[in-house]
Amino acid sequence: MRSPLLWLLTASIGVQAAVEAERDNIRTIPLRSHSLAAPFLDSDMQSRFYDFGGDTIIRADQYVRLTSDRPSQEGWLFSRLPLTATNWEIEVEFKIHGQGNLHGDGMAIWLTKQRGTKGPVFGSADKFEGLGVFIDTYKNQRPGVVFPYVMAMLGNASITYDKDHDGKDNEIAGCSARGIRTSSNPTKIRLTYFQEKSLKVDLLYKSENEWTECFETGPLTLPSVAYLGFSAETGELSDNHDIISVTTNNKYINKAYSEQGSTAPVDAGKGRGRGKQFNRQTEKGSWKWFFFKVVVFFGVLGGVYVGWTMYRANQRGRF
Question: Can you tell me the mean pLDDT for 10-15?
Answer without folding.
Answer: 44
